[in-house]
Write a structure and sequence with these properties.
Blueprint: H1 11-14, E1 39-41, E2 43-48, H2 54-59, E3 63-70, H3 73-82, E4 88-90, E5 107-110, H4 134-146, E6 153-159, H5 169-180, E7 183-191, E8 201-209, E9 219-220, H6 232-239, H7 243-247, E10 251-252, H8 262-267, H9 296-304, H10 308-318, E11 324-334, E12 340-347, E13 366-371, E14 374-379, H11 382-388, H12 401-409, H13 414-429, E15 432-434
Parallel strand pairs: 2-3, 2-5, 3-4, 5-6
Antiparallel strand pairs: 1-15, 6-8, 7-8, 9-10, 11-12, 11-13, 13-14
Helix pairs in contact: 11-12
Length: about 450
């Protein structure tokens, strides 16, 4: 059992502050010193809309970041506190020029903003101010193609609402950009629930140049029999694509995550890798840093916001005969009379709900700890949200709670990226080179 579950002895390392120096190497970048082995897999990448560098954390030591871009100076500060600062360009992606992009990357990664594509958005899709930043990003990709240095692989990540945004037009537009730029591509839906105790399905569109050989087993002729990576919504969206876009489609084939993640854990010590043997309760601290347990009156108010169904879940947890940890979101619902009311909805399935950017109190997740008749509640701590994103405790977080929550809530789950890198990106792009790397 992780030591942060056994009281407050590690309280100083669990908050949003600086990570212990002796674990800093877990996030150290590739290429600073020579490596003592016969050969190493070294692949290069750009990271657009970089946030705190969670895609970079998932790719790992075998990948060398040539360039990163982030518009938010607060996120950029955290990026540079965890990674080499010299590769990060802080500013609007729309102001960038291909002359600022060094080398010929193997991979270009882009987790562009989701607000206009999400179900909670106003339906503006790729024409919105935030999700519309996809277009200036793609302008850079198109420029690199025209310069004869097209990335070998392009990956974009976003919410699953992309599939249905503007009746599928936005997904079709994204797929058409890949096809028109000369890329074969496909998409998968990866739910973080298979890796960390958080329900977080996300869409990944993965494209490769024509000269990239598809090894046996990495793709199938048609939709795989399992729906693990290809949901019904994805199948429908693919079927509705324009004919030209469908001609370039690849059905990517990935193995199921391994419970416990023994292989990945050996590759990246300290990271929370595929581990669905863990539950939300395994990541929660008794003595968190940065948040306080609610007074009894506030907990009572929270429980009073529950519907009959959710109160029954709570009563069942009290009768369980063991400590139970539930996750709560406040949501606007209609009551029996059709009036809009705020409800507290709880789950005791060992999972957290999908972390969301804290635009208000209702979007910040609450945990409830039930031990017999005792019921306590509080907000998730910043460090706990980081663990739910697969980040190690060595990762430095912003000291401000909302900034830390926003950083993690906007990110991509590290463990998901590592699974994709190990089982798809690296087999497709693998190059073996001597290990004498300049310091």
């Amino acid at each position: 059992m992780p030591s942060y579950l056994t009281g407050c002895s590690r309280q100083g390392t669990q908050g949003a502050g600086v990570a212990p120096k002796d674990r800093r190497s877990e996030l150290a970048p590739v290429g600073r010193t020579s490596i003592n082995c016969d050969e190493v897999l070294l692949l290069s990448f750009y990271e657009f809309f970089a946030g705190g560098g969670m895609a970079r954390a998932g790719l790992g030591r075998r990948w060398n970041c040539l360039f990163a871009n982030e518009i938010d100076p607060k996120k950029a500060a955290i990026y540079t506190s965890n990674w080499r600062p010299d590769v990060l360009k802080v500013g609007d992606v729309g102001t960038l020029d291909t002359s600022e992009l060094p080398g010929e990357p193997d991979l270009v990664w882009a987790s562009f903003p989701c607000q206009d594509l999400s179900l909670a958005g106003a339906g503006r899709g790729l024409s919105g101010d935030r999700s519309g930043t996809f277009w200036p990003f793609w302008r850079l990709v198109r420029g690199m193609v025209q310069e004869g240095r097209a990335p070998r692989m392009i990956v974009i990540e976003n919410v699953c609402g992309t599939l249905t945004s503007r009746r599928g037009k936005d997904f079709a537009a994204i797929c058409s950009t890949f096809a028109n730029a000369g890329y074969r591509y496909g998409a998968i839906i990866a739910d973080a629930v298979h890796f960390v105790p958080q329900s977080r399905p996300r869409l990944f569109v993965i494209g490769v140049r024509d000269d990239i050989s598809l090894q046996d087993g990495l793709s199938t002729l048609g939709p795989p029999a399992s729906d693990l990576w290809h949901s019904g919504a994805l199948l429908t969206a693919q079927a509705n694509l324009p004919a030209k876009a469908r001609e370039r489609w690849i059905w990517w084939n990935l193995p199921a995550p391994r419970i416990g993640g023994s292989i990945e854990a050996r590759e990246r010590p300290g990271l929370l890798q595929p581990m669905r043997s863990m539950t939300l309760g395994d990541l929660i601290e008794d003595c968190p840093v940065g948040v306080e347990w609610h007074p009894e009156s506030e907990t009572a108010k929270l429980l009073g916001m529950m519907s009959r169904v959710n109160k029954e879940k709570l009563d069942e947890a009290k009768r369980a005969g063991r400590r139970m940890i539930g996750a709560v979101y406040k949501r606007t619902r209609r009551d029996e009379r059709g009036r809009k009311v705020q409800r507290a909805e709880i789950r005791f399935d060992g999972l957290a709900g999908c972390l969301r950017t804290p635009a208000g109190g209702s979007s910040r997740q609450i945990i409830v700890v039930v031990d017999g008749k005792s019921v306590r509640s509080r907000l998730l701590s910043a460090r706990e949200t980081a663990r739910l994103m697969g980040l190690p405790d060595a990762y430095k977080l912003p000291p401000n709670y909302n900034e830390a929550y926003r950083l993690t809530g906007d990110g991509v789950v590290v463990s998901v990226v590592r699974h994709l890198a190990r089982h798809l990106f690296e087999p497709l792009l693998a190059r073996r080179i001597p290990t004498r790397i300049a310091a």
